Amino acid sequence: MPRFDVNNYVDVAERIEQFYAEYPEGRIVTDLVNVGWDGPQSQFIVHASVFVKQDEFEFSDGALVHVAYTLKATGLAEESFGPSGPNQTSALENAETSAIGRALANMGYQTTRDGKRQRPSREEMEKVERGTNVTTELTPLEELFHLLTTCGFTKAVQSDIILAGIGRRVRDLSELKDDEIPAIIRGIEGAMVDRDQLAEEPF
Q1: Cβ atoms within 10 Å of 132's Cβ, excluding its own
Q2: Model confidence over 121-173: pLDDT tens digits?
Q3: Integer angstrom CA distances of residue 90 from 52, 87, 96, 147, 173
Q4: What is the dihedral of CA 92, 141, 198, 21, to 10 degrees?
Q5: 3-state secondary structure of 49
Q6: Which of 191, 164, 203 is nearest to 90 (CA)?
Q7: Is 163 helix (H, G, I), strand (E, B) or coil?
Q8: Is residue 42 very low, low, confident or very high in pLDDT (cuts 50, 70, 90)?
Q9: How far apart are the first and last CA of the chain?
Q10: What is the CA radius of gyration of the chain?
Q11: How far apart are CA 142 and CA 126, in angstroms?
Q12: Rounded to whole angstroms, how far apart are CA atoms 9 and 27?
């Protein structure tokens, strides 16, 4: 079974924090680029754009006239509703998070702490494999890794969820016992549903 080091992964939430620390007046804008008009929508394609403040113009009395932004990077992501995992309830949110992550990666923010960036991502290759071989399914450990890298929670929150699920903290996913993984998956999925049910704050 492959060894996954989630501690080496820089999740999207952390990359967003890095971006706003570097560009406090920056902007991350997302758009749903496909809309299902003829029935319930099951596929979501999200386009993310990352802007940084370039300049602003003011009158002599200090009244703001115009703020100019420069587009630095974009990213696209696709997700569809699935029978399990985060896409069972939150395919759109997952696609938005992935699109932002790809845009920030395109801008140069590292996806791994060791600096080794590989594109396409593991999740994208797994998606292709599942699409071409319907009998291929993720192992519980692979599903957990996918959840942790796409859920948008910080490492501290992920650690708390793991602690709540199995009663102890781990440094690496390889330390988990097989019978502990389902409890952690349920905890992450429950936390994602709870988060998505909260009213979103205005941008």
Answers
A1: 8
A2: 555 555 555 554 443 456 788 788 877 877 777 888 888 889 988 999 888 88
A3: 29, 5, 10, 12, 24
A4: -80
A5: strand
A6: 191
A7: helix
A8: confident
A9: 42
A10: 19
A11: 10
A12: 23
Q: Which of 124, 129, 70 is nearest to 99 (CA)?
A: 124
Task: Report whether pLDDT(73) > 90.
Answer: yes
Tokens of 153: 């929670």
Summarize pLDDT for 92-103 with one digit per residue, the tens.
898 899 899 999
Sheet of 27-32: strand order equals 27-32, 43-58, 64-80
Dihedral sign, Cα of residue 16, residue 17, residue 22, residue 28: positive
User: What is the rounded average pLDDT of the residues 33-62?
Assistant: 81
Phi, psi of 128 (to 5 degrees): -65, -45
Where b means 16+ CB within 10 Å and e means fewer, 77-92 reads bbbeeeeebbbebbbb
pTM: 0.57
CA atoms within 13 A on the CB side of 58: 5
Which amino acid would we find at residue 178?
D
What is the CB neighbour count within 10 angstroms for residue 165?
19
